[in-house]
Amino acid sequence: MTIALSHACTNPFLSSSSGTRFRFKPRSSTQLSPTAPPLQPTSLPKTGVIVIGAGLAGLAAATHLNSKNIPFLLLEASDSVGGRVRTDIVDGFRLDRGFQIFITAYPEAQRVLNYQALDLQKFYSGARVFYDGQFHTVADPLLHFWDSVKSLTNPIGSFTDKLLIGSTRIRVLTKSDEEIFTAEEIPTIELLKKIGFSDSIVGRFFRPFFGGIFFDKELETTSRLFDFIFKCLALGDNTLPAKGIAAIPEQLAARLPYDSILLNSRAVSIGFDETETPSVKLQNGEIFTSELGVIVAVEEPEAVNLLAGRNGPVQKKPCRSTVCLYFTADPDQIPVRDPILFLNGSGKGIVNNMFFATNVAPSYGPPDKALISISLIGLHGDVSDDDLAAKVAQELSGWFGDKMVRKWKHLRTYRVGFAQPNQSPPTDLKKNPKVDSGLYVCGDYLTSATFDGALVSGRRAAEALLRDRLSTRA
Ligand SMILES: Cc1cc2nc3c(=O)[nH]c(=O)nc-3n(C[C@H](O)[C@H](O)[C@H](O)COP(=O)(O)OP(=O)(O)OC[C@H]3O[C@@H](n4cnc5c(N)ncnc54)[C@H](O)[C@@H]3O)c2cc1C
After folding, report:
1. Fewer C-beta neighbours within 10 Å, C or N terminus of the chain?
2. How far is 223 from 51, CA to CA, in rounded Å?
3. Ligand 1 shell residues, CB under 6 Å
4. Same structural domain for residues 56 and 180?
5. 206 domain-assigned
6. Distance 471 CA to ligand 1 centre (A)
7. Interior angle at CA 442, CA 441 and CA 448, nearest 5
8. Per-residue pLDDT averaged across 332-355, rounded?
9. Are residue 298 and residue 439 in the same domain, yes or no?
């Protein structure tokens, strides 16, 4: 089964047990009832701040407003919160909508999330690279010293490459995030060459590893993002929340007032009256006005549409896409028990990376089953779902043996058209969130295209709005 992510499917985590449209009760059930007739301009319901979009950026904006006791209404087009960070339960498996890793060193995440409650399950700090018909381990020397010593002679990179990884780590650790985000930038591939990494380690390790993080095989993504991720990887663990990646936005949503989030509520336009008070019109015709301002927290292409003609964002570069295929197997039909990421360093085939999700987080599957997650870069739109699953299985037969892979059962495929904004140079990772008087934007396309960037941008938009409001009242 394939899910194209513009067609969201139900997430049993958040769908209402009563079967009604809203998981979070509206602020006033009469005002916001889905069956209420469209409101007349004279009876517009007012709210403090309207936030459009309940992905991480919108949730972070709402979290900041809530911490300052500012009333707000969070409008979300889909049936749940989280945006791109969602998990579906299918046959007892937790399927994240695309392979996502939570790095514990993300600085904003450390400030706003309760890690203990997320019950984070760690990956091995390193990777196993498939190259020349064999697997080779690349290990973090600080965490897996002996594995890294053993890896010194493997063909993934030269001894010099391994020293250069150490010096790159020191370079990024001595810079503040502010310095990293405002530093001179070049494409990541050029940075790697400038540092002096060999073609072997670039092709066999950096290309699949960072290509998988940026969904960008060519490594055109800005060196600023490379440095930021490299620093976070050096400082923290790669993890998955035990209940799925969606546990992250759900934790933020659960802390907001119960009636502050309106699901299944797509904003279609934003208008201003003669007193410059912004209002938001929903697809069903309802209109909400805001006393304090509107924060648009939708993904880049949608923000371009919503804010057309308003000095809003302009999408100049094609976005990054990915496909994630899930297979299941009996526990004795997978080759390892390690919570390790496998990378395709061969330069051939369509698989970029894969891992055995239940090895990292057993809670991702029923007790007697293994879950296998395989990621491709790009949408592969010219290949049918069945053919794609067959192609992937055939390719992995070359990795793990046909006898084993033949027994894996294809469960679901997610094609994610807009996985990340394109962040190749030139970038401005500290964009001003203000679009107009009372109108602000946030989202990962304004900062770093990461969980952390989305959280930072949401807080910044809420801060900017409150600063402006205080200054106009002073
Ligand atoms: C497959 C995949 C893997 C990833 N892996 C990682 C990773 O490992 N590590 C990492 O740090 N980051 C990763 N990311 C990136 C990260 O998920 C995003 O940067 C971040 O979640 C973006 O959050 P956002 O709030 O800016 O946008 P979104 O999550 O896109 O949220 C926007 C929200 O707005 C809603 N919306 C849109 N239009 C409207 C409208 N008109 N009215 C009302 N609501 C609307 C949408 O439904 C959505 O809920 C990954 C992303 C994907 C897709």
Report:
1. C
2. 32
3. 52-58, 75-78, 83-85, 98-101, 266-267, 297-299, 302, 306, 322, 416, 419-420, 443-444, 449-451, 454
4. no
5. yes
6. 32
7. 140
8. 97
9. yes
**Residue 214 alpha carbon to ligand 1 centre in Å:** 14
**Measuring CA to CA, how many Å separate 154 from each of 16, 61, 120, 147, 434?**
52, 47, 31, 11, 51
Which residue minimizes the CA distance to atom 6 of ligand 1? 100
Q: What integer pLDDT is reported at residue 138 of this predicted model?
A: 85
Together in a domain, 451 and 385: no
Dist. CA 305–CA 314, nearest whole Å: 9
In ligand 1, which atom is closest to the CA atom of 59? 25
Dihedral pair phi/psi, residue 338, rounded to 5°: -70, 145
* pLDDT tens-place string over residues 183-236: 999 999 999 999 999 999 999 999 999 999 999 999 999 999 999 999 999 999
Number of domains in the chain: 3
Q: State the distance from the centre of ligand 1 to the C-alpha of 114, rounded, in angstroms.
A: 20
Share of the chain above pLDDT 70, in %: 87
For a ligand 1 pocket test, name from 420, 440, 441, 448 the mutation site with the most ligand atoms within 8 angstroms of its C-beta.
420
Nearest to 295 by CA among 454, 114, 419, 136: 454
Task: Tell me which of 176, 206, 235 is where a domain ends.
Answer: 235
Highest mean pLDDT among 109-118, 133-142, 301-310: 109-118
Q: Write the residue with the smallest CA distance to atom 53 of ligand 1.
A: 419
pLDDT tens track for 144-153: 666 666 676 7
Q: From the CA of 451, how far away is ligand 1's center (Å)?
A: 8
Do 245 and 88 form a contact (C-beta atoms < 8 A)?
no
Same domain for 327 and 388? yes
223 & 309 share domain: no
From 182, 216, 235, give the residue that closes a domain: 235
Q: Is the pLDDT of residue 17 over 60?
A: no
Query: What pLDDT does 140 receive?
Result: 73
Q: Which of 74, 88, 100, 326 to mutate to test the pocket of ligand 1 (most atoms within 8 A of CB)?
A: 100
Higher pLDDT, 2 or 309: 309
**Mean pLDDT on 319-346:** 97
Closest CA to 423 of 207, 248, 218, 234: 218
CATH number at residue 411: 3.90.660.20
pLDDT of residue 157: 83
Task: State residue 455's pLDDT score.
Answer: 98
Say if residue 208 is in the same domain as residue 261. no
Which domain, by its residues, includes 158?
145-235
Q: How far does residue 448's CA lie from ligand 1's centre (Å)?
A: 12
Residue 38: its pLDDT value, please?
Answer: 34
Q: pTM of the full predicted structure?
A: 0.91
Residue 130 within a domain: no
CATH assignment of the domain containing 284: 3.50.50.60
426 occurs within a structural domain: no
